[in-house]
Amino acid sequence: xxxxxxxxxxxxxxxxxxxxxxxxxxxxxxxxxxxxxxxxxxxxxxxxxxxxxxxxxxxxxxxxxxxxxxxxxxxxxxxxxxxxxxxxxxxxxxxxxxxxxxxxxxxxxxxxxxxxxxxxxxxxxxxxxxxxxxxxxxxxxxxxxxxxxxxxxxxxxxxxxxxxxxxxxxxxxxxxxxxxxxxxxxxxxxxxxxxxxxxxxxxxxxxxxxxxxxxxxxxxxxxxxxxxxxxxxxxxxxxxxxxxxxxxxxxxxxxxxxxxxxxxxxxxxxxxxxxxxxxxxxxxxxxxxxxxxxxxxxxxxxxxxxxxxxxxxxxxxxxxxxxxxxxxxxxxxxxxxxxxxxxxxxxxxxxxxxxxxxxxxxxxxxxxxxxxxxxxxxxxxxxxxxxxxxxxxxxxxxxxxxxxxxxxxxxxxxxxxxxxxxxxxxxxxxxxxxxxxxxxxxxxxxxxxxxxxxxxxxxxxxxxxxxxxxxxxxxxxxxxxxxxxxxxxxxxxxxxxxxxxxxxxxxxxxxx
Length: 512
Ligand code: XUL
Hints:
- By secondary structure, this protein is α/β, with parallel strands linked by helices.
- The strands form 6 sheets. Strands 1, 2, 3, 5, 11, 12 and 13 form a 7-stranded mixed β-sheet that branches. The protein has a 6-stranded mixed β-sheet with strand order 16-17-15-14-20-21, with helices on both faces.
- It has helices at 38-41, 64-79, 123-132, 136-143, 152-162, 164-168, 176-185, 193-196, 211-217, 240-246, 259-266, 320-329, 334-342, 380-398, 419-429, 441-457, 464-469, 484-506; strands at 4-11, 15-24, 27-37, 61-62, 88-95, 100-103, 114-115, 172-175, 202-203, 208-209, 234-237, 252-254, 257-258, 275-279, 283-289, 301-304, 310-316, 352-354, 371-373, 408-412, 432-434.
- The protein has 2 domains: 4-261, 2-Layer Sandwich (Nucleotidyltransferase, domain 5); 268-435 and 482-512, 2-Layer Sandwich (Nucleotidyltransferase, domain 5).
- The structure holds D-xylulose.
- Residues 12-13, 96-98, 117, 150, 198, 258-260, 282, 284, 315 line the site of D-xylulose (XUL).
């Protein structure tokens, strides 16, 4: 059988990535990769880290036209790359979750901006939806998550209340993933359960809209929502204009999903018991679940997974931007950041940081408020270690509800190339940490999902184990192992961190 080529795309908060893979006799290899950053590639939109400026720090929006322009640029670059695309069989993609795009009946934007996952301006709408549906526990049981401010349902409700005319003029509401998939097919793409479960609108068990939640969210919402199809669905073929651009055949387009659910595939979490940590704009920790185990404590969510299973996930807003804030505050580059990490001991002599530079999702911190314990802001190495330790301890503490005690953590995301950061992860979790050859798991997951969906549609299905074997299995060499003494230090410090965190949230702990 001739080799097949598959394209994966990932539209994240800060940029667009592409990876092209070649599959020959069941073996996969990377052919081509490319990344672009929105701020630099599309400067006319004036975003900072992919987000438009706002006077209200709870409001975080972006411009959907920028995402489309970036897609256009990416496909032009690929078309001009010299790579032979005559055997491109399928494309899939992923995108930042929860963001919503509003279109009128001519598929033009009925709202010029799209609220994104960093937005935390819908507390009122979360409370209204929760009350209408009988409380947080009911909502969590039914949709996988209690109401969260960035989730699409509360965002849609806010828009319908504040801009009723523009809402009235809206005939379709897409997620970022289905909006970009629509561009590829020049049509109206459906959603799939992985991304649709981040809306507070989908019934996790039936994988279809939950009518009560739809009714409680906004008037006339049902007709504005796309259909939900299984993740592996072929949703159309690549539109002729793109075929011409890429000199490729009418490739299948497989439903796009959210970046986290795509990363389930890209980090090879196709069996229960494996755990991945993604250190990106958001830091996330997730694992596959055959049956949904909902978090009653409210720190985590259950989404659909592309395999047809479920995934448990906990999300932190203060990820890479918090690490950069600390790095930049002391004029460091990443090498200098690493040197500072290596020059300080595990446990940091008890110096702690709660890196809430932006309102935090986990734990719920409504106002941006960095807190320090026994830590002088002028202490450069102390702050560098404290931000990383704080993030790792929060990841470990707030993911306990998932009930997974992995021996090996699959690390991905931009910061996962930094072995000094990963050493802190290994020590805090008391587990080995493994890296991947392809750093962007969401993007790789999209290419692998394209392969899987195409094979299924062609009547020659491949198992997830086979799909993930070559590229989504963590490297066995160079694994980072926990230090015995460091792990002991963190076992204690994690308790202190959790207690201080609770005190800060109650307002009973003062900064130093
Ligand atoms: C997931 C979440 C973030 C975004 C980042 O719930 O809000 O991880 O998907 O792109």
